[in-house]
């Protein structure tokens, strides 16, 4: 089945690497216009090169998702360049594994500011742009950590659980304006976050894959990008307030190994 996102303007945070970059590239290949933001400008420049090589149209912006002023400015620049916004992908986030007794208040507040407040600010300020287009889509990146408990995940899991429920609240609130809001819940993906987990937990990527799901592997970036693009497309017009788990069956199937 084809996905229809051609000529939509898609705003993606955390697009300097990983899932954000993968989504930006896939949207561009499907004919969407991409606004890619990140705090990492060098990463964004690499994303821009890849998108242009694929024939896509892209605007890159350095952007701290914890700053309300920067959200307002970034959206204004997106509209100036492309005439409006149709889709927001709230992807930016950081990952910390630590026992609750070792988490400082400063660390807690920093992660929550990026992972939760950033999602709130993005949604808050994109609504007028989506409403101007008579509707649109917001896709929030949560995690399987937002669905179940894990050792060392009190902080990260709390942030992703908040994103999960915020998504449902926004879906209820914004439906009258034809704005759909859904969350995506990946397992470990082959990105820097999985590299960090390997080091912190002392296990290899292969071991993580074997133990996490019946398919026996970590997710590829494309596995998540495909879901994000589908949720932005016209073909998902009846989907809102839902959580889409991309985890190889890990949260629903028990396979002892």
UniProtKB/TrEMBL annotation:
- What are the UniProt keywords, alphabetically? Oxidoreductase
Q: Where is the signal peptide?
A: none
Chain ranges of the Ketoreductase domain: 8-217
- EC numbers: 1.1.1.47
Offer an example of a GO molecular function term for this protein.
Answer: glucose 1-dehydrogenase [NAD(P)+] activity
Return any one Pfam family short name.
adh_short_C2
Q: Give the family this protein belongs to, as stated in its UniProt record.
A: Belongs to the short-chain dehydrogenases/reductases (SDR) family.
State what protein this is by name: Glucose 1-dehydrogenase
Q: Which organism is it from?
A: Asaia spathodeae
